[in-house]
Amino acid sequence: MTNNNKLVVKDNALIDASFNLSLIEQRIMLLAIVGARESSNLTPDTPIEVLVSDYIHQFKVDSNNAYGLLREAAKTLKRREFSYLDRYKGLEALTTANWVNKVTYVDSSGLIVLYLSKEVISLISRLSEQFTKYHIEQVSDFRSKYSIRLYELLIKWLNVAKTEKYSINDLRSKLGLDATEYSTMSNFKSNVLDRAVSEINKHTNITVEYDQFKKGRVITDIQFRIKSKVRSSQPELTRTSQVAFHQMTDAQINMFGNQLSRLPEFSNLADGNESYESLAAKIKEMLRDPIQQKQFFPHLKNLGFKA
After folding, report:
1. DSSP 222-271
2. Which InterPro entries match (predicted)?
3. pLDDT digits (tens, 9 = 90+) for 70-98
């Protein structure tokens, strides 16, 4: 399989999930997701093979150390979890699941065999809407685990040219940081955010800058601005085609605007102590705007909106 055919495809719920995988573990999962696309009937019992030699070639790493490092990563990957927004009996919920059910390492063949969890399978296969895809080569030169995660978050918004506002805590969670890691803003920016932005600008087909928002002297939110390095007539990476504007009736805008204003994900849109009613009015106007509506669509779908 050539690099041009090595597509990583993920449901946006998985793109927006919170998890902490090492750089090696993320790379293994990316190769597994690419490999899983070749299976016509993917189940938790389907073996997904990842050759260490393919890993070495894809990510341009030293072969002397790769076998031992991947052997250890295969062991730890079994214990790793991720959390994502889900639905349960029509209600918004948070689900925590494992990436894999079982991992086998065949030392004599330099082979990792993964058995993906049913949750992962549902979030990477047979996707028809609200998914993000990119070529694995775009993240192959990264040396920071945070660069992969940030790139995935950004590429989801490529067609809109800017992301939603991320609260610092939400962004840290999506990047896999706990409260004790790089806890000061200066450490977070220099060791995580700025390094990831630099790698993305250097190695991928997008450029990114970010704006900081403050309450008083404290940075509370960050929003990213994204541009493609490739011509728009031939986009190499795409967000889903489901970002088209959805015409909504006044009744729908009123109902869903009120519901969206109560979701914690959009509390960052409120100014200071702005009331829910005032925030709802703001969101209702945004739902009428073709650009601004797009940030709400995954949540609209979860709330029952049908295009």
Report:
1. EEEEEEESS-TTS-SSEE-GGGS-----HHHHHHHHHHHHTSGGGGGGS-
2. Initiator_Rep_WH1, WH-like_DNA-bd_sf, WH_DNA-bd_sf
3. 999 999 999 999 999 998 998 989 999 99
Last residue of a domain, one of 95, 114, 140: 140
| DSSP strand pairing (48-51 vs 91-98) | unpaired
CA–CA gap between residue 256 and residue 156 (Å, rounded): 23
Q: Which of 131, 47, 123 is nearest to 82 (CA)?
A: 123
Distances, alpha carbon 144 to alpha carbons 76, 147, 151, 199, 249, in Å: 19, 5, 11, 8, 45
Q: Which of 193, 227, 242 is the last residue of a domain?
A: 242
Query: Would residue 16 count as lying in a domain?
Result: yes
User: Range of 249's domain?
Assistant: 244-302
Give the integer Cα–Cα distance in Å for 106 and 108: 6
* pLDDT tens digits, one per residue of 119-139: 999 999 978 778 899 999 999
- CA 15 – CA 150 distance, rounded (Å): 10
d(CA 259, CA 72): 46
Q: What is the tally of structural domains in the chain?
A: 3
